[in-house]
Amino acid sequence: MAVEAAIERETARQAAEEAKRLELAAAAAALAPTVRTAEQTVVMVADDSKVVRIKTGRLLAAHRFQVVMAEDGADAARQIEASLPDVLVTDVDMPGLTGLQLARQVRGDPRTAALPIIIVTSDSEQLQDEAAAAGVNVVLGKPYPEALLIEHVQQLAHVSAAS
User: Fold this and answer.
1) In contact, 56 and 79? CB cutoff 8 Å
2) Beta-strand (E) ranges in the chain?
3) Are 117 and 103 in contact (CB under 8 A)?
4) pLDDT at site 30
5) What are the DSSP calls for 20-53, one per residue?
6) Which of 31, 75, 92, 158 could form an S-S bond across to 99 if both were Cys, CB 3.0 to 4.6 Å?
7) What sequence ranges are listed for the domain Response regulatory (predicted)?
């Protein structure tokens, strides 16, 4: 009887370990970034300059990203509230809600806190610390190499290289 009880205990222990292993694997899979294609990736461009919005939007669209435009920080905040993009590319200097204020607002909301943010500015050297404190992922100085913006968007959105 003692042997049977020991076998039952060992079987139960192994079953519990297997259940725990499966639970941990499921949790890890849920946390792992989902690899997607550019076509599945929505990039919001927030800039008060129509020329910059159009130029950046065309660049992103040429790389097959879905692009949504926001005319300024407040417009971006409203749109993000309604529909969360996969990446936010924003200017710093905008009337009303600046890019840094927008970044702080995004980071302060649990629903949007993980949204990757790329900020574009002509004052990249002076802005690094403030942008990092606001939760910005990448600071690009103007002018920036177009390939660099695309590379950052792909990395932050977990876009597969084959897309």
Assistant:
1) no
2) 42-46, 66-70, 87-91, 117-121, 138-141
3) yes
4) 60
5) HHHHHHHHHHHHSPPPB-GGG-EEEEE-S-HHHH
6) 92
7) 42-157
